Amino acid sequence: MRHGTFLFCAGVLALGCGDRSSAWDADYESVSAGGPPTQGLSGSVAVRDDALDRLVMITSPGGRDLTTKALPVGKGIVYWQTDAKRERLFVLSEGVQPRRERDDEKPSLTVIDGGGWREVDGRAEFHEPSILARYELDDPPNPVLYLDPEGEYAVVTVGGGVVENPNELLLVNLPEDGDDEPTIEAKTIRSFGSSPQAISFTKRLRFPDGIGRRMMIVQTEQEVALIDPENLDTEITVRLSEPLNGVNMSSPVEVAVHDNQRSQFDPDDGERFPIIAIRLRNRSTVPLLSFEAAPSEAEAGVETTGVDFLVTVNIAEVGSVPSDIDFFWTEVDAAPALRLAALLPNRSEVALVNPDANYTDYVALGAAYDHMTRVTDDVAVQPLNSDVALLTGQSVYSVAFWELGSTGTRSYRSLETHSIGIPINQIIPITQDASAPDGEDYGHLKLLRGVTASEFYVLDLNQRQSAPMLTTGTSGANITPAPDGQRAWVSVANEEEIASVRFSDLHPTTLVLERPVAAVYDIAQPETTHGSPSRVAIALHIEGASLGATVLDARAPDTADTRFYGGILLGGIR
Amino acid sequence: MIRREAGYLVASMALMVPWVAAAQPAPVPSEAAPAKPSSPATGVAIEPGGDSVDQAADAPPGATWEDGAPTEATKAEPPAESVAASASVVVVTAPANVGPSATEEEAPTMPTLEHLGTYQKHTWVGTGVRTSYVNDPGLDPFAETDALVRLDVGVGRTLFGYRQVSLAAVLDYAVGGRSATARGDATTIMAHQITVAPELRFHVWPRLFVFARPAVGAEYFRASIEESSMNEELLQRAWAVAYDLSAGAAVQLYGKVSSDARIPRLWLVADGGYGWTGRVDLEMEANDDSDAPARSVPLDLGDLTLRGPQFQIAARLSF
Amino acid sequence: MRRRTSLAMSAGGVIGALLLGVGCGGSDSEASGPPGILYTGGTSGFLPVGTGGRAGTAGGGTGGTLPPEAELEGSFEAPIVTGKYLWSANPQSGRVALVDAETLRVTTVESGFGPRYLAAIPTADPEDAATIVLNELGEDATLLTLVDGVIAEPVRFSTHAQANSLAVSPSGRWVVAWSDWREFNHLDPTDSFQDLTLILVTPSSGDPCATRRVAGYRPSSVTFDADEQNLLVVSEHGVTVIDLTDEANPEVRALVEVAAGGLADAAARDVVVTPDGSHAIVRHDDSNVLGFVDLATAVITDVTLDGRVTDLDVADEGATAVAVMRGIGQVAVLDLPEAITDPEHIHTTSLPRSFGSVSLAPDASVGVLYTNAEPTTVVAKLSLSDDETFLDVETEDLRAPVRAVLVAPDAEHAVALLDPPSGSVKAGAFSIIPTFAPRGPKIVGTDAPAMAVAIAPAPSTEALVTTRDDVTRTYGVHVIALPSLQEDYLPLVSPPLAVGLIPELGKGFVAQEHPEGRITFIDFPTNLPSGSAATPTARTLTGFELAARVTYPADN
In angstroms, rounded to a whole number, what is the distance separating the alpha carbons of residues A87 and A41? Predict the structure, then answer.
């Protein structure tokens, strides 16, 4: 009997010994919150793999090849976002909650370099996606992240728990390419009963104390705070309302900042300092903040310690609740003059406010435009002293080209309207990165799309023409311009057909792939042997538990020249 | 899947049950008392100093007499001296309960280690369960544990024997596999191994020998995955060289004492060692006639090397 | 009947002319005069009713009798100017905003509970500024001073309840808070409003202090005599004379009846005190008798004129009074105080047509006669110069019915507010009348009724006229250059509240209705008086309170 016992034990032992990574048992989890499941960067595509607390970065070394690299980002992804240049990714993770053991992972912010092919000193170099930095947080972060467009800062808020301080911000000083030690500072902003609703960053502005500084603008329900991210003690709070009996709160919904500088200005005419305009919810008044040198203490009569300048507040009356505000240059007496434009769809007008005089002029638009975009830099013929704006509206079947400046008694130079078949609620700009071929600049094109329309338009700002692009039967199409500014990709979730629209001749190419497409991304590749830039399009297919990709030439897409990669999420587990 | 391995184990065990049962030790015959000097009417008078033949005393414990007749191999020839010594002895017929009479066939006896006979020189067939412990990560997509259980079938024949040492040739075939899921995609892997090996044996006892066996051969892998994005089964088939080095022991569970006749003997073999196969790249691809997307790139699941300690429990039937 | 009081309280500050008085003649129920548009002085010209300006009693006539002339009243709710600073009170926040008209820098300071009424206080140093603020809800007053650019610690004084008016002595040494019954609705006969709070701002020793005194029933005006020895309070009882000699204990020296029979006909009379404080002149509706009350002796001397006096005006210099007798078409010029006893000092002349009101230049060199009891487009310039032109009358047709006339401090021009004539598409009009220059008046039609006027002090080179139409939401200010009569229009975003000028800065301002406070500052081009091609430019400052809500770093 001992033999039998031994045999049996041997078999049991065989069945039970050894183990494999639990990752193999983790099915792909579909992303339901905290951002999209995939994001396109300039040189790679990132796929969120929440089940394994990682990102799978997809790059292309050339041709139709794909490589993947898995980067751990901390347990419990809460939110992720790319920066404005689409070169870095920011991932917030909540860690193990609640923590019981010392080695339970803490919440964190992970900064990832998307990698891919980039121009460095005129040469294309391939960079592996990598983790640039990881910051541990003490508390679980909220699913929101405020990023500085210039890539220097990120702001995280933490929450959850029995007590939460919504005014506590964590300012992350982002490293440049791994240089410098990353820093994270906590700042509880001054509060008068409200909490942050939006945060933005200005570029470097020159203030009356002679210091050039960037400002972090924090909008709360009733205040706007200006904080120097390089010196968090420099905090100026402008309370927009005093919630007294019968007085409604003035809530900021948009902040426009202008440096008020122009090369044509003569320094002898006096120094010019930034101007900030604040659009308020349901208010026809727009507070304007300007800056002036602080007087000597004997003159001031006010205590302004901490900064050597004063913030003056002037309220502009624009006549109706504006839907959009921005600063524009216009021309007065052959010289540039700054104006605050406030779109008034209720009156089909735009108010032009002289911020110095606080004087408002009105321009009739003839239609209820509710959004304006400065396109001065995108048109071929740029006025010398004034701006050009593109006006669109969600209830208007036209677009307007508004060229500022003054002619005679009119406070603008021209207002040209063009009919368009759909009301526009989104303007997609055509941007270009370093991979764009010389001389092929389509920045003067804009993609216009409506809410539910099954078409979009390609608007040529130079020719003042709009070309409809019909997406028959696909009202929910995703339209993504390629980073090199040469084409746009159109796809519909869970459909196998995608399209590429070439900007050079607006030729659309429909491609029928072999699996339903979740998203299409266009990333750079090294130059071909002929020296021409190369790009590859990656169409992602998310099927249940797996992710696949079809790779094709972005510039000349051909379904007969594709390559399919399956099981992308199975990589990186060994 | 783990059920397959369990099935192998249960099957092996089931096959072995009758052998195990049959291998229960036989009641040890009581030692035949030396023939007593019988009464003058019935006994054998033995001169002092003479030896008597006591076959039973030589029989190993548990040995049985199958038909009561000793085999030729086990039949011990009475020493000549004892015959001569009995010239002056009055032979009296022993009583029936003493043992076979001298007039019956001579009882077979256990061979000596110098002459092991068919204990050593035989041909056998065997079957068993080989369990390998493979901690190569290449197996992880296909198995939740590191164990690879295979059904092993082998044949062998002793080529050369000298005294206690013998050399046999073995041809072995093992087949086994695992199945699991890889992030929700069903996976399987089957491994077929054929090896040839010399088996160097040393009989500690006629019914017990130890051996060492270096084997070399080839392994054939078939791995598959039901990849969701392609919605197709992806396969990888590959050959790899296989090496084994094992050592173990075999003990006879059943068989006649005599070493002369070729009679079946049942051996229980246990060995352990280390197995190794060449690296196999797990580049999984769809069949040409499948509906996978055109120009699908093989799914690279890394590579696999089946290496690791292993042990085996087998039964051999030699003859 | 009005006595002009200049509120140029500091050397640097300039305001328009203040017209202060009590509604004359008739009762409210007979009102049929101008359509509820009333005028204020204060720091500016005129204010419309509803913003604090008092309603004049434009009494209606009976059976063909013309109604009384409309009066111009003062208001203290509008911002006031001291030097180059504007003070504006926000009753909601309890703060007073100090606006530097030169830099537009705003400083706010806590005043009290419900600050509402302001009065400028003259300061010795033109660079300094001071104001007294009545905190309506807190029933106290706050003295705010700006010295060397720094606001000193506010000084608070308790006042009597329901104080809503302020009177400041010419030197600024005394401020009297009193209650003007005309600001209240639904009065009970026992609402006497007799309390006064006398605030000694600059005592000869010790700290500023306040004392309470009681005057007659329902005071209608409070003035100081020229040397600030006496405080004269006109009420229905008569004139209460309070001796200020003992600053620690001002004494109610006398209550001088101003009419035989005491309180009889109190509502139907008009009382004005001469600038020197020696006499009170009483005019009765429908009477050709002027009562001159010697405030020292309480002796009443009646002076009978040829016709019923519809308006009586006393020049700032105090030596000339002009009485208009609409019924007989005559005007009488009285040399004060001689005319009280010597009829030779009463000079009468006939007028080419019927006028009921007069507006005098501060130096009494000219008066402009007009009437607003009936639509009349004609005004008459009455020369009061002591030369051969004395009592010369020259009429001007302004093409539109006249509502009010204000003569510039330098007497060179007058501004008339007009109603739109029949057949006009305009909502209002005004006219600038050269009083001496041989030029015709300039008539300007406006898109909204003209509301208020402010004229620069002598030499009066600019004038501002605000227009307001709440129905069409049309608001604006006309900038008039004098003597070129160039007129420029600047639209306003909000209803104008008050208008004024700051000549030391070459600016004008229009305070407007806005919950956060709004003032438009108007820069006059340098050559504007002589006719400049450049036009005035405006800068609007809105949101005084916001500047106070800017919080800076705690410390550095």
Answer: 6
